[in-house]
Amino acid sequence: MTRLSRSTLFSFGSLLALAGVPALAQQQAPPPLPQQKQPSTIPPAAPSTHAPPNDGKIRIYVADSQSWEVTGGWGFSNGSGGGAATGGARPQTAEIIKTFNQRCPEYTVTNNKDRANYAVILDHEGGKGLLHHRNKIAVFNRDGDAIFSDSTRELGNSVKDACAAITKDRAAGKK
Length: 175
Fold this sequence. Notes:
Elements: H1 6-19, H2 22-25, E1 59-64, E2 68-77, E3 80-89, H3 93-103, E4 108-110, E5 118-124, E6 135-140, E7 146-152, H4 155-174
Parallel strand pairs: 1-4, 1-5
Antiparallel strand pairs: 2-3, 5-6, 6-7
Helix pairs in contact: 3-4
């Protein structure tokens, strides 16, 4: 067994420390400095109100359910044939709003969901025969509860029934 002198061991230990061997050098990084909170230059946003305004108007948010209609056909004659299909969404929102303004002038139609007292969703079935399509309508109060749903053949009747349901709900709330 070989004996090493103290100077040899000291030199060997110094070499390991200088070489960066972490087990022997045991150097630690300084702890991270606590971060200071930067003052905000942007003022906090005003809290938004989600209640409808208290100006006496009853506001109705109207939407359709993006009903789809697909039509098409094909034919074959004298050795050749062809076909076509068309389809897509048939949004009825503008027509529904127009009908609400005509049939229920006491209510205000709004495009702002947050200001509405009621929400009305209409599903217009297209692509069926004149006697087979139905307009399905649902009315929701401010809490999101369905207060009315029905289906009719005419848009005007659906809107009239929705207005009657809103009037009935308003009267029940005042009791």
